[in-house]
Amino acid sequence: MKQVGKFKLYPLDEVLDEALGPIGTAERDEHERLVADSINKICKHDKVLN
Question: pTM for the whole thing?
Answer without folding.
Answer: 0.69
